[in-house]
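job 3f2a | input accepted
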Amino acid sequence: MEEKIKPTELELNEFIQIINEISGIDLNEKRNILNLKLSKFVSETNAKTFRDFLNKLRINRHLKQETLDFVTIGETYFLRELAQLKEIIFYIKSLERHVNILSAPCSSGEEVYSMAMLAAQNFIKDMSILGIDINSNVVEKAKLGQYKGRTLQHVSESEKRKFFTCDENQIFTINKHELCKCKFELCNVFEDKFLRLGKFDIIVSRNMIIYFDHESKLKLMERFYQILADKGRLYVGSADLIPETVFFKKVFSPHGVYYEKT
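job 3f2a | predicted structure (262 res):
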């Protein structure tokens, strides 16, 4: 079975192309890892051959989601790139009004809850955060709000006491009543649903754009522009390279850069 579903070079190229069309993700640099892991994944989908799998992938919505979950497994943790998060919170406080924030991708919720925790520590309640991700498994985990282990390594003991409850298995559950409104949805930034999410004052998109090819980055910038409010800000991760476009002005700040809607 393993040999039967092993992709040919052409089939692997087609798989990479399909994923790029669906999500903007460029998997070319992960070809070796894909070659090692794809056979096991495809065998679990009950496909008879890799060609059978590819044919189903193009038309089967459930299989598309399973495959996206497979290729977008990432690791994150609370208070990641903390200096930037603090800058975002201080900016929100300066606005002195209700602020809508989009976290895209939100992964398993650590970034959303980190911003909400920092906001609570700065006495900010008049804000709401929507976290979206293409991976259904991490969205469900974010909704559940239960964490353990290394993801909490930068959370202080006092923060754990205030913002979490801990059970006998050392599983920490977020105290949502201590935080601003946090919501999570399964959403692909390149689907029509994304443009119907509403208007946002701030978009935080860290460690996603790095995986996109140039054309997908340009398309994403236009879509971010469409859902940002006037003078809205886009914050990206330190490794994310943003192409120059007419949609955003690059602004240098004490803790890096952000992009302001033009």
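job 3f2a | The mean pLDDT is 94.
job 3f2a | closed
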